[in-house]
Amino acid sequence: MSEAYITRVSKFLPNEGVANEEMEEYLGFINGKSSKSKAIVLRNNKIKNRYYAYTREGQPTHTNAEMAALAVKGLFSENTSEIKEADLLSAGTSSPDQLMPSHGVMIHGWLPETGSIEVVSPSGVCCAGMHALKYAYMSVKLQDKKKAIAVASERFSPSLRAEQFEEEVQELIRLEQNPYVSFDKDFLRWMLSDGAGAFLIEGKPNETGPSLRIDWIEGCSFANEEEACMYQGAHKLEDGTLKSFKDYSNEEIQSKSVFGIKQDVKLLSEKIVRLGFTNLKGILTEKGFDMNDVDYFLPHISSYFFESKIEDVLIENGIPVPKEKWFTNLATKGNVGAASIYMMVEELFASGKLEKGQKVLLAVPESSRFSYMFCLLTVC
Q1: 202-251 pLDDT, tens digit each
Q2: Cβ–Cβ < 8 Å for 275, 368
Q3: What are the boundaries of each domain within the chain?
Q4: 216-229+259-379, what's its fold?
């Protein structure tokens, strides 16, 4: 088999960064009032800046597919004609612009210069970007493809805007109940961000700059044991099952804000760290890899609240990582879901800090129904 290398990295962030005090100017005030939970959530997640594909006036500036395409074009900024050599587009997201067609082909629609190539669209939430990377990695390693593009992108902002919840609030008022949306819906409004990241995967390292050899990518799911924790387009019932938007009337979809993104915060806190990062020990043992050899540890976290919890679980399992080896940009980029790990790699790649032979471990937990992806890279 061939080796597979990340030879180029790129990102796209829409518009200017949005500071904490500006957020409701973009997302709006539900029932005309500021959120009660905003300050609490921001204090815990420690995010200072994020990006929205929207103007303050509520006008969309980019689609999800368009942002992904712009990140892909960034891979070929020095030689735009080289994009014609790409033979695979593997695209992951948890916030596609539509249910059909697939997200990948919509991105391809923004890239006419590629010609006719294979396109695949792994679904999921935060792990979707890693699934896209793994498909590209395997395709190159098997020598089925020569220049594979992996891209991950999110456009969460439309689902976070106040008008998505206004009908639910009005229904609560009619029922003479507290006119505030529940915390499981309000929670994510102060964490999520828009943007895209892309990798070029080839069978040989870059001759003019650093590359990252993909040593392995491993994933695991605990959906056979755990109920859904984060969901959209569904409503969680008392027994923990999800009722699809397809089984609600149009009126119920509006009154329950079924298309709002929801998070079972109690379940998240109890499960997200321990399940996946305990399982990491077994993966490292199977791969014969010593955590002491890690030079950079890139964990995708939705909130700095989980940083110490991950550290504790790694220590408990005998695979500690000194904090000076951790690398994250959550505070400056926000939680960009499937694209977050791409943006971390891009920032580290561009930092000038990487040295040949160093090991980079990626860790991506996904709370939707508790899935995890881990990846080991070697700097070449």
Answers
A1: 999 998 889 999 999 999 999 999 999 999 999 999 999 999 999 999 99
A2: no
A3: 5-208, 216-229+259-379
A4: Peroxisomal Thiolase; Chain A, domain 1 (3.40.47)
